[in-house]
Design brief:
globular, 7-stranded mixed β-sheet, 8-stranded mixed β-sheet, Metab_Enz_Cyan_OpOx_G3PDH, FAD/NAD(P)-binding domain, 21 strands, FAD-dependent oxidoreductase, alpha/beta, oxidoreductase, FAD/NAD-binding_dom
Length: 403
């Protein structure tokens, strides 16, 4: 029987395995993908200091630490159930069953693409799929495309597509409907983008952002927004254009675009078609929590964490005995935070199983999580630091659920 089975070989799962195995635990990992790294593999962006963050290289660094620890990773293996039976966990997969004393769920996040008429045509994909095709599989998603959805994720990946030589004709709002909500409202989108104005490629955008953060400023900008959009890396950023329909007979051939007012409303809108051969839809990320639900976790909903997350404490322990979580399943943050969370989870598991370690080691790892979070270039959602602190209070939700 294993000491620890980790579900997910992304940044959190790999770092959990390293810290647990370094303290003498028998650790194995299962992942449904055919190679390790998870979403880390597709990441490629430039830090404010000019250095490039390359997810493939970061994955290789983690694997270099994995190798001497003799940790087995089972690829192309999907977990479809897990149960606690007689003080041990049974993990059911398409490749057989495993028994383990503890389980760490590090399944990451899933994308939430916003529906657009015509989105079932070949050539339509999530922005994350385009990232994997381009950065991991080295395949261009097409020759000329459009990105629907304006958020920090779509900006980061659109830049990656451009660096790979893909022609992006424009970035547009999704169509206004029940599911798109604020994602289709120019003023709301502008407000969310202003949180990342320090990363804007244009000096004018960086210096001008503080003057438009108020309601008056956002009204002014969205009312007089340029007809052709504002250029970001040479790509038109269209705050007053929405994607009405993706057109094509057997695959994507064009997209119908309409002008909206500053509230995102369509009134006798004039439309036109833009010729493209692929479309990326970006609706953001949500924690991938299905296995935690099967395992019996309770959940809380926090917008600042990306949706529903399993109740857990700062040591990544859930209220279910012998079950831990780490990474984006606990809330959407950067890969660097996921790695540091994984270290905490691995240490907490080792401590709970009787491993000997310096008393301050877990506290040092917790401090590393906080400092990494505070220094993160991108915070996917506002208030995440205060929300985390509130959730991890001694008398917080975890204590109540545990009782």
């Amino acid at each position: 029987m294993l000491d620890v089975m980790i579900i997910g070989a992304g940044p959190a799962g790999l770092s959990t395995a390293i810290s647990a195995a370094q303290h003498g635990l028998h650790v194995e990992i299962v992942d449904e993908y055919y190679q390790p790294g998870g979403r880390l593999l597709g990441q490629l962006h430039q830090e404010p200091d000019g250095e490039w963050w390359n997810g493939i290289e970061e994955t290789e660094k983690l694997l270099e630490q994995i190798e001497p620890l003799h940790i087995t990773i089972h690829y192309s293996t999907s977990v479809y159930d897990l149960q606690k039976v007689n003080e041990k966990w049974i993990i059911y997969t398409n490749e057989g069953d495993w028994e383990s004393q503890t389980v760490v769920i590090a399944t990451g996040a899933t994308e939430s693409p916003i529906p657009v008429p015509g989105w079932t045509l070949p050539g339509v994909m999530s922005i994350g799929a385009a990232q994997v095709m381009t950065n991991v599989q080295r395949i261009k998603p097409g020759e000329r495309g459009i990105v629907i959805g304006l958020n920090v994720l779509s900006f980061a990946i659109t830049r990656e597509l451009q660096l790979a030589g893909v022609d992006v004709a424009a970035m547009l709002l999704p169509p206004p409907h029940l599911l798109s909500k604020k994602e289709a409202e120019p003023q709301e989108v502008l407000g969310s983008l202003l949180r990342f104005s320090h990363l804007a490629p244009s000096l004018l955008m960086r210096r001008g952002a503080p003057f438009v953060k108020g309601g008056f400023g956002k009204n002014l900008v969205t009312s007089f927004y340029p007809e052709k959009g504002m250029s970001v890396w040479g790509i038109p950023l269209q705050l007053r254009r929405t994607a009405l329909e993706i057109k094509g007979k057997n695959q994507v051939e064009a997209i119908r675009v309409a002008k909206v007012n500053r509230k995102g409303e369509l009134h006798n809108a004039i439309t036109h078609d833009v010729d493209v051969d692929f479309v990326c839809i970006a609706g953001g990320l949500s924690p991938l929590v299905e296995l935690a639900a099967i395992a019996g976790c309770q959940f809380i909903h926090e917008d600042s964490l990306g949706g529903y997350v399993p109740v857990h404490n700062e040591k990544m322990e859930t209220a279910v005995s012998g079950l831990y979580v780490a990474g984006n399943i606990t809330g959407i943050e950067s890969a660097k935070v996921a790695i540091s969370q994984g270290t905490v989870a691995g240490l907490a598991v080792a401590k709970a199983m009787g491993a000997r370690m310096n008393n301050g080691k877990i506290n040092d790892a917790l401090q590393e999580v906080e400092s990494t979070r505070a220094a993160a270039t991108i915070q996917f959602h506002p208030n995440i630091i205060s929300v985390r602190k509130s959730m991890y209070k001694t008398e917080g939700i975890f204590t109540k659920v545990k009782e």
